[in-house]
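Worked Example 4.2. Read the sequence first, then its structure tokens.
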Amino acid sequence: MSSAVRFVFVLHDHQPVGNFDEVIEQAYQDSYLPMLKLLEQHRGIRLGLHTSGPLAEWFDRHHPDYLDRLARLVADGRIEIVGGAFYEPVLAMLPSRDRIGQIRLYTEWLQRRLNAKVSGMWVAERVWDPGMTADIKAAGIDWTILDDFHFKAAGLSDDKLDRHWLTEGDGATLAVFPVSEHLRYVIPFGAPQATIDHLRFLADRRHGALAVFGDDGEKFGVWPDTHKACFSEGWLDTFFGLLQSNRDWIEMSLPSEVVRDQPPAGTVWLPECSYREMTEWVLPAELQLACVKARTMAQTDQSLTGILPFIRGGSWRNFRRRYPEANEMYARTMSVSERLARIRTAGAVNPAALVEATQALYRGQCNCAYWHGAFGGIYLPHLRNAIYHELIAADIAADIAEGRKGAWVDATTDDYDFDGRTEVRLSNDGLDAWIAPARGGILYELDLRDQCHNLLATLDRQPEAYHAQVLAGPGEARSVVDASQLAKFKQPGLEKLVRYDTSRRKSLVDHFYDVDIDSTAVMNGTAMERGDFAAGAYAANIRRNPGRIQILLSRLGNAWGIPLTLSKAITLESGSRTLEIAYKLAGLPPDFRQHLAVEFGFAGMPPRARGRFFYDHSHSEHRQLGELGTRLDLTVVRSLGLIDDWLGIDARLSLGEATNGSIAGIWAFPLESVSQSEGGFELVHQSVVVMPHWLVTPDADGVWKVSMKLTIANLKAGQPFQPVQGTMAEVV
């Protein structure tokens, strides 16, 4: 006689590309290893296990015995290895070639390392798009698991979700399991018996019912207080014991066994969706709160309960709208992906380098830095830095694959970020500068090829729904957005540190302020913008000379209502690690006197850390001006440098003579965001702003000019710092 209920238990263990070794090691000790030991002790427990590629590779480097023990459990038929895309991308953001490539590559790795047959996969963050079905099937996958939330959004009722279904796309079919949201919240946060009671309810309702749990393995030991509850206090041991003692009616099944033994309930076409919380997090702050409120009302008002399955937020893709930085990373992955596709078609000079470039691209598609919810995500600088590290490395490997070598310089144009407007890419063998003429003429990405680092992997500060809780101050135990989320304040005074930016935190952002502006207002983000240049559209022209290219940007705008033309030129030479920058203001009335500040951003250079500091022009004396979290208000200054000896970056901004001897000052200050992680609310250093500024007074022709140089030296390569020599670029 068949069991009254079949229980599929799937764990998803993941660590992102770029996470710190010590963080992963702690997760190993607190969660992954104790779980493995408990599984070895409870021989009646069978489950599906998905370990993301970045974590599996880490195990192979640091704890290969862990994988060996997993392989033995696989051979015993107690664990089914669940595959996936190798580096845990959200599949919906990838082109088909990368979806299929990532899935196949990881399947091959798992089969080779664990001797495991892989027939199913984990979909990262359960972000589903109907167009993925054919690609997943083409990659050799027969089944996957999604949330019951997806199925309810397709119109299926609760009593239809105790079985698996088929979905179809472009003629390909895929078996799909609905994960119970109820079990996601009960395990491991309710009493162990609560799950048994739920399984009994399902069995009583329909003999042979299927129940599916699928969620993060980090819930068992890594999340706050869970190691104590799950292991020290024995929650998991008790839970596994209950499952075994009730095996006369509860059958623990592996997903592939269910697909093999039972026919699907039917075919359902699932809408674009993710789990419930994700669809809320993607919404702007005020709409996120409205969505949560609507769901709460529908849950408590009996007349509205019928519409509850259809109250959901937005599409995961719109994280790229919420966070322009996410779109910039995505656009960079697409640029690399398309380049590698062209190389494959044309044939690589160095095929091994093409393989290396492809794997670096795949690592750069790891999802965690592209969004934000209950975890730090895009707010964590080391995750953003890791994405760019991989994408820049992929481009360098692509150069080798194509046979490109020696010193070179180039400029190309395209709609690189998919906003319907043209961007400019100015590159050489050392630097890669991405410029957005239509968005303030800003420099929005600056890649240092020697260090594989984007100096502009910054983050704008914007409203978040949970800021309502932060601004209310400590006191409430739970978040006003998500009752499951802690509202712990990890630092005092966070309610006083919530700031929002009114313009991009990039480079060559042009600000006009009051003549007597207080530096504190600028640093706190409360200074009033008196011009329309920071986000205005600039015309762009490219000037080419042998070994030297200049991008000229120009805009007719106004400051305090006074019309003027602001032109700025960015020049790069082959073999150089210096951007030459020149500004020209023209059409100024004789009595013009305004305060111009040009913003530069420096990301990935943390504060309050050894070997990271500001220095002044007497670099040979190493006269430090403070660590990179210091606020500086410098007057009568010709240069400012920033050192990060861990990354090997020595960045120096040098200022030339300005018209009429206008004296330059420099403001420098850190940008810090108040964000949410699994541990609560915290202050996160995002970048350093360096802002030279002048009181502009024109010459007799109504013109004002100044030139600057941004020079990047590679400390690790032993490149000595060289004083700036020769004339600077000019806007003619």
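Now turn to a second chain, presented in exactly the same format:
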Amino acid sequence: MYPEKIIRTVGDLIIHAAGKSPDKPAVLYKNDALTYAQVYEQSLRLARRLIRLGVGKGDRVCFYLEKRLEKVVSIFGISIAGGIFVPINRLAWAGQALHIIKNSEATVLITTFSRLASLKESLSGLLVVIVIDRPDDDTLAISCPVMSWEEVMDGNACAQPSSGVIANDVAAILYTSGSTGLPKGVVLNHLNIIAGAYAVSEYLKISTEDRILSILGFGFDYGLNQLISSFLQGAQLVLYDYLFPKDILTTVEKYNITGLAAVATTWIQLLQIPWGNAMNSLRYLTNSGASIPVPCVKELRTRIPAAELYLMYGLTEAFRSTYLPPEMVDQRPSSIGKAIPGEQILVLDENNQPVKPGETGELVHRGVLVAQGYWGEPELTAERFRKNPLQLEGMPIRETVVYSGDYVRMDGDGYLYFEGRRDEMIKSAGNRISPTEIEEILYNSHLVSAAVALGIPHEIYGQVILAVVSFSHGENGKSHTKDELLAYCQQNMPPPMVPREIEIWDKLPINSNGKHDRAKIKKEIYEKKGLFSRAPDSPHCQGLHP
């Protein structure tokens, strides 16, 4: 029933996993679980239903769900049918969700009844909405047909449909928000997703013995890679939407979790509370999305020294780019490492030439993980996805690489250090200043629990630095002060880096991927200071309008 296949597509993956370990629990959610065979059988039922509804190869199918078993089944079922899965972040508001549905030109939406209620007025372009937990007294007036998940699961799961999909075909569109505008869709083919899982699961040494906690969304490349890697290696995946850091501790201990992936803000929050023995089952932990401050890296190593800590860097446009081997973390706690297996990282200057050790340049990713561009955005695609400037002369077909927009520095041994995004770098009095470096020093003070550094316009210097921070709790409940933090900065930073202003917030906002929401913080600061009222052609306002 589950033929052995070479894994080239996401659909192949679930067939392979079900054939290898049919009775093993694959995914757990609260008190429920699905074996690999059950995931395959439910995915097959969904695939056959989608095909009968008119979904063909390349058609887009959105799902707008919280973490639950049906979310996993949706990914594999859409893939088996030959469709393209389009996750909508569970925290997305109705306007963002509708934008993604319309922009992707989706034909089917899979969602819950409560979420459907917020979207009902603008779904006329869909073939059908598949609703989970649909109540008997359904009174919503929907502008397209509605089908329950139970009806879908009643379908035939006897035969595998032939979709004609190959590795180069599009598998997913992941919508990611930039600093401005509505989310843009990053197009990934099956090769991007499967090759990324092979590479990451190899260096993380994921095995059938692992039980991995999934707290990241599947619309976030980091979270999707975790799911695919787990199924590729026959591990168990525990789904969890957490509210508070202590919830993560409880879940790790309850399920005897061996692998945990999180973003820097989550690790920082976790380190604000005691752990006891709750995290002792962890074999490895990973970070990506933004660098963890060095004091937090050292604290993680102190709290669970037996666990391997992987510091990584990735971008949705290339799935995963670099990692630092655990044995190097104590020596280089601020590094994002080197290229992952099978990929190459170039660090280029403004003339597309490799920088020298110690110099800063833009990180450019080369390899099979480079995405297929932005959905419906040819100009933006051309800006970020370019021909390899270092390719061998005379090659008749030019290779595409992705320019990350991130500045990094390479040391003499080839290890990389993240400095900041191109649009976040601060230029003050002729100095190019990394906001990440400022934030690192702020965290080193042990006075703050969260920090974001911004450049704000200044008539003489071009920009000066404003730091937005939340204070950590002092000894015996003593409150820290702005003067105390400023004095630390003056003692530990060169003058151009010292914040001209410090704003104290109780809590810094977090975006849908768990990172500090720089765009929202910047917008609030600029509105408060009336900076958006400056003329657009002012030299001090270039690039500042949201």
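Notes for the reader: The radius of gyration is 24 Å. The CA atoms of residues 107 and 125 lie 7 Å apart.
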